[in-house]
Structures are given as structure tokens and as C-alpha cells.
Amino acid sequence: MTNKLVGRIVQSKAGRDKGRRFVVIAIEDDAHVRIADGDTRKIAHAKKKKLKHLCFEHRCVDDLAQMLAATGGTADSALRKALALGQETEDKKEG
Length: 95
What we know:
Layout: E1 8-12, E2 21-27, E3 32-36, E4 47-50, E5 54-60, H1 64-69, H2 74-94
Antiparallel strand pairs: 1-2, 1-5, 2-3, 3-4
């Protein structure tokens, strides 16, 4: 598994969080990653999710390493902003 997945924006295809967007913050093994969105899933309590239950988007979060190194709720706030910015640019492309 390569580190190319870290920082990718994904959408959940299964589970309680179906349809929600997240960012891959870590790779667990060949079949699992850790995801967070900074809102319902904070970085400190990232969700372990199977790759087959995720739909990968073409966008990545820039400077994820700096976000993860931030203390307190700063990292979660930056992650929420990055996801919101990605949603706005995709909506503009569709419209």
C-alpha cells in the first residue's frame, strides 16, 4: 500500500456514515485506512474503514502533515475547512 492514499478525500459507501465525506489520515494495512472529517469523526478518534467501503475522489488535502501536527481543535478545524472548500469547488464544476 502506498502513501498516495494519505490526504485523499473519500466518500463512505457503507455504514452509518454512508454518503459523508472524509479525509484519509493513515493507512492501517492493505485493506484498511483511518478516516476523519473533523466534525463527527475527530482526528484523535479516527474511524478504521475498509477500502472497499470508500469511494475515492480526485482531490487531495494539501499540507495534511501540518494539519495533523497542529495541537487542540486546530487540526480538526483545518480539516473541516478543507472538506468544505472541496465541496464548494465540486458544486461549481457541476453548475
